[in-house]
């Protein structure tokens, strides 16, 4: 063997461990959650007055789930379900928690961060927590090694006074940047810090939840929107879209995009109760609002992207729920699910890539105080106010305008029985709708 060939052989042998490590590296997982978004307010759902180019590009790069749901019609319950992969009513987290020492997601529940951390992932939360303020409930006690954000349900977006609530770990961050921009910055920094190891990033924006705060940088983009509330909302949406764009650009620049499962949802529908939109959002063509079990409260923008593993630009119409993102992340990470975990979510990956053509769920269920719903196929039985049950056939009536309760008594009977069977498995809420312990 001549010297050149010998040196080339040595060089290739030296690369073998690196190549093997690259092949064996587990995928990164990025879960992005928007807050109080209207179903209609993204470009991939046809929005005309608020450009969302980065979210639209994410939808084009993966699978858009048009019947994507969340298990709670407002903030904290959805997050509890997402992080545990279980209907949150199973462990009493039915309503938003208050600030009491014993009010928060029960510590006996295992989070996705717990499971991924145990599997060797670096874990970080950037943004909104809303699962308990007391020390035992805080992110770094629930599997997250790093945390930048706030603990409660809402927060100002504007530069804060010293010690006003934005934390880095458990210490005041004294943040001086517009909060949505800061969350994008911190998410990019987390990726940069952990790019050589598998990581789990939970990026939980508070945009576009009240208070309605936007900077001139974003407001100037929407001078043609005359309604002040809608204009501010558009600016807040645009800021979040920009921040998401910086995160995806960082993944791309680091060569990680093809090895990252990226999911995007809103935590519930826009708050449009009583025909008045609190934050300027729109749930069209859906009826209903945040805090209701009508479609406008629980059906949300829902995107799953994994380049090279999931088809690009696919539309998936079967009902799915945010609980499934937990199971899908575990599957992507190669973590076997134990029956003892009692997950309600299912791994969506074989459904989204076409290997499994069966619907992921026989039915989806909701309970929120005296409100309820069950969706089975195209049929939905719901109670969303004090007028009793209503029956809708969603394939023909996405706006839930035509109540078929009287015409379909057998269907009502079947759905009622299925919901009651599920309801019997649940526990009483640990605290009431006001956030105080029962």
Oligomer: single chain
**Rg of Cα set:** 22 Å
Q: What's the count of strands?
A: 16
What is the spatial order of strands in the main beta sheet?
A: 7-6-5-4-8-1-9-10-2-11
CATH superfamily of the largest domain: Alkaline Phosphatase, subunit A
Q: Give a short account of the largest sheet.
A: 10 strands, mixed
Percent strand: 15-25%
CATH topology of the largest domain: Alkaline Phosphatase, subunit A
The N- and C-terminal alpha carbons lie at a distance of: 80 Å
Q: Rough shape?
A: globular
CATH architectural grouping of the largest domain: 3-Layer(aba) Sandwich
- The domain tally reads 2
According to CATH, what is the class of the largest domain? Alpha Beta
What's the rounded overall pLDDT mean? 94
Structure class: alpha/beta
Which percent bin holds the helix content? 25-40%
Low-confidence stretches are 18-22
**Contiguous helical run count:** 11
Order of helices and strands: HEHEEHHEEEEHEHHEHEEEHHEEEEH
């Amino acid at each position: 063997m001549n010297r050149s060939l010998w040196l080339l052989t040595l060089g290739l042998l030296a690369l073998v461990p690196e190549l093997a490590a690259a092949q064996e590296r587990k995928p990164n997982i990025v879960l992005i959650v928007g807050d109080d978004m209207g179903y209609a307010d993204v470009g991939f759902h046809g929005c005309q007055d608020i450009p969302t180019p980065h979210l639209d590009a994410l939808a084009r790069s993966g699978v858009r789930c048009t019947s994507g749901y969340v298990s709670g019609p407002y903030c904290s319950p959805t997050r509890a379900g997402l992080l545990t992969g279980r209907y949150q009513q199973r462990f009493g987290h039915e309503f938003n928690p208050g600030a009491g020492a014993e009010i928060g997601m029960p510590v006996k529940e295992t989070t996705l961060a717990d499971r991924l951390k145990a599997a060797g992932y670096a874990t970080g939360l950037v943004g909104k927590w809303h699962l308990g303020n007391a020390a035992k409930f805080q992110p770094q006690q629930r599997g997250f090694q790093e945390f930048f954000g706030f603990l409660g349900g809402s927060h100002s977006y504007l530069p804060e006074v010293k010690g006003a609530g934005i934390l880095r770990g458990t210490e005041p961050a004294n943040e001086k940047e517009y909060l949505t921009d800061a969350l994008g910055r911190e998410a990019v920094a987390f990726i940069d810090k952990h790019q050589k190891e598998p990581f789990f990033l939970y990026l939980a924006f508070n945009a576009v939840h009240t208070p309605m705060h936007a900077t001139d940088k974003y407001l100037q983009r929407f001078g043609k929107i005359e309604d002040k509330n809608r204009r501010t909302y558009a600016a807040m949406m645009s800021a979040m879209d920009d921040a998401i764009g910086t995160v995806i650009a960082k993944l791309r620049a680091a060569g990680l995009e093809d090895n990252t499962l990226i999911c995007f949802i809103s935590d519930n529908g826009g708050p449009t109760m009583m025909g008045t939109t609190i934050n300027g959002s729109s749930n069209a063509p859906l009826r209903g609002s945040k805090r209701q079990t009508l479609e406008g409260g629980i059906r949300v923008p829902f995107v799953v992207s994994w380049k090279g593993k999931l088809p690009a630009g696919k539309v998936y119409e079967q009902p799915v729920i945010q609980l499934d993102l937990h199971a899908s992340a575990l599957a992507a990470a190669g973590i076997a699910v134990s029956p003892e975990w009692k997950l309600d979510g299912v791994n969506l990956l074989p459904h989204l890539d076409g290997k499994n053509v069966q619907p992921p769920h026989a039915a989806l269920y909701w309970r929120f105080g005296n409100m309820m719903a069950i969706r089975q196929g195209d049929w939905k039985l719901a109670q969303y106010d004090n007028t009793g049950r209503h029956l809708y056939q969603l394939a023909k009536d996405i706006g839930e305008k035509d109540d078929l309760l009287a015409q379909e008594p057998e269907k009502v009977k079947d759905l009622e029985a299925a919901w009651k069977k599920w309801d019997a498995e649940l526990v009483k809420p640990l605290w009431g709708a006001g956030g105080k312990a029962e």
